[in-house]
């Protein structure tokens, strides 16, 4: 294994694995830290953690355990992947995890670049934009667990870390690798937020990072890394064979993000849909087995969702507590996924990073093979002989994503 990656959630890890696969690296996504060695021939390993919303000490411990395993597999470089919208809180763990990895790897400087222009996320003057909106006006300010109320990534990261935060300006990044190298050499800060407004910027940053032990960012920061290994003649250049999967399909959506809510509303107009409310879940009025029976009896692409608008979410959080509601809904989706697979469901589409993490962990999956792309950042994933998944990040995918996912899962190319 050449490139070792640590992802702070499951949708994000499949987004990264998708980028690396498309760029020609043989990539496997692991569910948590594996307890056995990787197969030979794996060029990039993505250890997916469910650590985005957990306390700093726990997140650091999980990341260091992942690092130890990845180093034992021979990795020459480590990539820490977080959300392209930098989902975290001022007390969040992105900064502390990166600092702990940097200490363990003796990294002199660490780049932070969440940009993913293909999904509309750019970093300019240290500020994160989602399409034409600042992060804090993009809908992400209402996230149920990690409300992003400040678009200045330097300031947000600065609140989380011990060290000081520097900035690599878009004007420099645009000039390419030599200019970037010179600017980085002149920086006294260890943690550097890098602007990137295009794929070319990300590729240039990736090329500069050829010798860096650690790099951090969204999936976009991985775009230039495979070239570095290819230039050294280290990639086999062989893509794995992929075959599609037919059979019963169900959509589970616990994401309350704007894009998902649009997809849910659109899907419900033409397909069987069942809403579960936070109040019903908290009162124990919904049972996973009943929901699974309902889904199994439907024609078409059945969907079960708790996705709700910010006002509804705020009201339920005020009544029950944000962490308690999130945990109860995740536990319901976890039990539901198990019940659906037990009833023969072979295609599962999950919306939301935390939701997807709960489902994947509940299914006891260990390794995920990356297949064709459904939408930017979302691949089909094979989880077993008769089971494929699509783990959709909250804000990814077009209006008809759920139908597109079901179709893409069936194709073999
Ligand atoms: N109706 C709801 N009220 C409050 N919290 C909810 C509701 N529905 C889902 N949640 C919780 O909100 C969180 C959404 O996060 P996630 O699944 O990561 O979605 P996204 O990828 O859009 O951020 C989950 O923990 C989920 O359990
Ligand atoms: O970088 C991204 O935006 C995604 O890969 C990601 O991490 C998504 O997280 P969720 O929005 O919580 O699904």
UniProtKB/TrEMBL annotation:
Entry function: Catalyzes the ATP-dependent phosphorylation of 3-oxo-tetronate to 3-oxo-tetronate 4-phosphate.
GO molecular function: ATP binding; kinase activity
Keyword Iron listed: no
Family, as annotated: Belongs to the four-carbon acid sugar kinase family.
NCBIfam families from the UniProt entry: OxoTetrKin (NF043035)
Protein name per UniProt: 3-oxo-tetronate kinase
Organism: Roseovarius mucosus
Top class in the EC scheme: transferase
Classification via InterPro entries: 4-carb_acid_sugar_kinase_N, 4-carb_acid_sugar_kinase_N_sf, NBD_C, NBD_C_sf, OtnK
EC number: 2.7.1.217
Taxon lineage: Bacteria, Pseudomonadati, Pseudomonadota, Alphaproteobacteria, Rhodobacterales
Domain Four-carbon acid sugar kinase nucleotide binding: 250-402
Catalytic activity: 3-dehydro-D-erythronate + ATP = 3-dehydro-4-O-phospho-D-erythronate + ADP + H(+); 3-dehydro-L-erythronate + ATP = 3-dehydro-4-O-phospho-L-erythronate + ADP + H(+)
Segments forming domain Four-carbon acid sugar kinase N-terminal: 3-225
Keywords noted in UniProt: ATP-binding, Carbohydrate metabolism, Kinase, Nucleotide-binding, Transferase
